[in-house]
Amino acid sequence: MSLVERQALMLRERVKVLDARLAELLRIGRDNDALARKLLEWTKALLGERDRSRTAGLAIDELRRIFALPLAEIRTWDEQPGEEDAGAARLVSTMHAPICGSGIELTAIRGLAEAWTNARSVALIPLRRAEGSEAFGLIALGSSDPARFEASLGTAVLARIGELAAAALAPGDTQAEHLAPAVGP
Predict the structure, then answer these.
(1) How many domains does the chain have?
(2) How many CA atoms lie within 13 A of 20 on its CB side?
(3) Which of 5, 62, 146, 157 shows a CA-CA span of 20 to 30 A to 36?
(4) Does any domain span residue 158?
(5) Is residue 180 part of a domain?
């Protein structure tokens, strides 16, 4: 085999590798686009709810529907959580970001361990008014698919879900307070 033939063969192999990588990047891009559309749909549902007493239920119902989640719950508490929410409040207070995995201990969250016996992977999302502030609640998502919320999963979208839900649910706030003031004549 001549040098030119060897180089041509090496280039063909390199093109195959690059084609495979490009196909993977395109798949990831399509997945991210689909995820962004779902997040937008969920956000629009939250913004469309005018009755704050229904916002928490709507947030969870729409998460289940839009993201095809079999298990989803939201828990909120006052500044001083009651005895029933104290375990969840302690757990969430240690979280700096959403956590995912299959070995997450759910017993601290009242009633969740018993109700979610078929959950093989879980994501826990803290609800905070602002970054670094005390959590006033959490969103728990679960699946029977052990790969759905793997520990290695990126949590950026989960963090955005938490931020949006917190803005809609923060105690003592109104949704209008989260909007920028009008500017102009």
Answers:
(1) 1
(2) 5
(3) 146
(4) yes
(5) no
Q: Answer yes or no: is 181 within a domain.
A: no
Nearest to 163 by CA among 183, 133, 119: 133
> What does the block give as tokens for 50?
């005018």
Range of the domain at 9: 3-172
pLDDT per position in the chain (185 positions), as tens? Answer: 889 999 999 999 999 999 999 999 999 999 999 999 999 999 999 999 888 889 999 999 999 999 999 999 998 887 666 666 777 888 888 888 899 988 777 766 767 767 788 888 999 999 998 887 888 889 999 999 998 998 888 889 999 999 999 999 886 644 433 333 334 44
Contact (CB, 8 A) for 74 and 58: no
Domain containing 108 — which CATH number? 3.30.450.40
Distance CA 44, CA 147 (A): 28
d(CA 168, CA 171): 9
The answer to whether residue 183 sits within a structural domain is: no
Nearest to 98 by CA among 148, 153, 158, 151: 158
The DSSP line for 58-86 is: HHHHHHHHHHT-SEEEEEE--SS--GGGH
Task: Answer whether 0.85 is exceeded by the pTM.
Answer: no
Q: Are 120 and 102 in contact (CB under 8 A)?
A: yes
